Amino acid sequence: MNTAAGTTDFSTEDLQNLQTTVERFAKQAIAPHVPAWEEAGQFDRSLYKQAADLGMLGLGYPEHLGGTPAPWRARNMLSQTLARFGGSGGVMASLFSHNIGLPPVMAHGSAELQAEVVPSVLLGERIAALAITEPGGGSDVAGLRTTARADGGDYVIDGEKVFITSGLRADWITLAVRTNPASKGASGISMVVVPADTPGITRTRLHKMGWHSSDTAQLRFEGVRVPQRYRLGDEGAGFKMIMGNFNGERLAMSAMALGFAEACFDEALNWARQRQTFGAALIERQAIRHKLMDMQMRISSTQAWVDAVTQQADAGQTGAEWVAQVCLLKNHATQTMQFCADAAVQLLGGMGYMRGTVSERVYREVKVMMIGGGAEEIMKELAAKQLGI
């Protein structure tokens, strides 16, 4: 999300009130409906408006565009709380896809473009998405092949994108393109905002292991004509924009992963207290208590790391060492999520394998968290480079 919209003017009381609101929203508007949304392959579009009315979609964006400036500690608290009590990565991925789609617009778009794109998204009336990954490309952003050819005052776009969150329902697509076909590396990449109803765009639903309630699409662009005024920043400056955008995405994903780990712990602890085996509750068994403490140990370490990196972000300490910390934190947080999901499913036994339990759903969703935003191996290598190793 856009760090320029951050502020430290959030008191402890403000944070507590926000957390109470988010928890109530998660428990009432999300959690009871997730099984049905998972079966339907999408959630009700009205959820965007509900979240917007509570100020959730606008958190971290400037007031003049309909947002509420907020520090990272408020934004990460929202992510962690929604994950813990909503229990669905699919819902969160699509409901907040604007938090990866809009930051480049906020950081590099003209004031006129921001005014055209951002307010309706923060009101929950339109949906924004980010489209970078291409078939066969993965994390190799510098190798992307989607082209944007200048033609008069327009760009003509041709190519494909894949694994695009909110790809089916997005109204605005922040798109990475190659505007200099002579360059095969990072220098020829630009970012363009594309109205999704532009002729020449074809969308195909993708079927996934998890995140069933999030629409994920493959996008094809064939002769898509977009005015050049929709370009973000200078032509050829897109690669740096993309790399900077990843930092905020990875920090938010770390907070989400922590919340999902807590959700698994909550379900496992509740089950252990209620489930009777051989005349006693599971919680009376030493092996069960130890498994729960293994989960808590990892949750506590992740919480401390998230808090430390968040505090640095709010203090503006976002240099190379911070970037490395974000990369490593993202790995650690998703590994904590993986460990807790696995432990919870094991503790729940047969029920842990059944659809409808939070732990079963998180177990299926953990891999996309470990891959999305940069796979573990990419994170390690990037961290090493940032640290000069």
Radius of gyration: 21 Å
Q: Care to count the β-strands?
A: 10
Instruction: Give the CA-based shape.
Output: globular
Estimate the helix proportion, in percent: 40-55%
The proportion of strand residues reads: 5-15%
Let me know the largest β-sheet. 4 strands, mixed
| H-E string | HHHHHHHHEEEEEEEEHEEHHHH
| Through-space gap between termini | 28 Å
**Helix-and-strand structural type:** alpha+beta
The total count of helices amounts to 13
Q: Strand order across the biggest sheet?
A: 1-4-5-8
Structure, described:
With 389 residues, the protein is an alpha+beta fold. The chain is 51% helix and 15% strand. It has 13 helices and ten strands. Strand 2 and strand 3 (154-165) form a beta hairpin. Helix 4 (72-86) packs across helix 9 (238-274) and helix 11 (320-348) runs antiparallel to helix 13. The longest helix is centred in the middle third of the chain and has 37 residues, at 238-274. The relative contact order is 0.12.
